[in-house]
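User: quick one, sequence for these tokens?
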């Protein structure tokens, strides 16, 4: 009995702006998780599903690759694709791109940190934490964080991230409080308008000493 295959996005090999090992590895990791979820262990079936799900553009590439193995050789097929999408490293250019990576306007410090880690993957830095810390100091949107880092040159990357998260939390809390303070209590205004007599001052009678409207 035929069974329908679950939907799964193919790998877009025609996307020339972002072809590389990272994007391929992410897709391949998701594909292998799919195989685990479907409980597929037979290598012939795994290879067939791989060639089905990679999509037409990637299949066209696969058919031109050498040493892709036989129809039941899943590992050989994976290795051929991994080698094809492995980037041709230019360390100097990768470092240049890393140095140009600044924090985006709506990007949190943690998101910026993750992006720097990804950018640094092919830079071959001898001390990754030191390089990332230096780039955060230069590329952060927070003047407070930058000045704090410059005042404490022995600060570690972990300590810098902790302080930056604290600044973000304080800024978020303060903005929320200020927004609430600036909001006009409309229900109080309406109550005053409905009862103008409540704010009308009473006059003291000169003759009897009593209060009159």
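Assistant:
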């Amino acid at each position: 009995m035929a069974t329908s295959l679950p939907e799964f996005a193919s790998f877009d090999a025609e996307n020339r702006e972002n072809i590389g090992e990272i994007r391929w590895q992410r897709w391949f990791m998701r594909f292998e998780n799919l195989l685990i979820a479907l409980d597929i262990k037979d290598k012939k079936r795994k290879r067939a599903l791989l060639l089905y799900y990679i999509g037409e553009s990637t299949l066209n590439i696969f058919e031109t690759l050498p040493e892709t193995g036989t129809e039941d050789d899943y590992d050989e097929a994976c290795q051929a694709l991994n080698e094809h999408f492995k980037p041709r490293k230019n360390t100097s250019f990768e470092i240049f791109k890393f140095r140009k990576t600044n924090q985006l306007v709506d990007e949190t410090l943690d998101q910026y940190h993750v992006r720097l880690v990804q950018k640094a993957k092919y830079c071959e830095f001898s001390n990754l934490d030191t390089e990332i810390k230096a780039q955060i100091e230069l590329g952060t949107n927070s003047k407070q964080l930058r000045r704090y880092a410059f005042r404490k040159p022995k600060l570690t990357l972990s300590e810098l991230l902790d302080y930056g998260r604290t600044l973000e939390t304080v800024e978020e809390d303060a903005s929320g409080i200020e927004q609430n303070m600036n909001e006009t209590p409309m229900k109080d205004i309406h109550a005053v308008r409905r009862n103008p007599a409540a704010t009308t001052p009473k006059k003291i009678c000169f003759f009897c000493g009593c209060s009159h409207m």
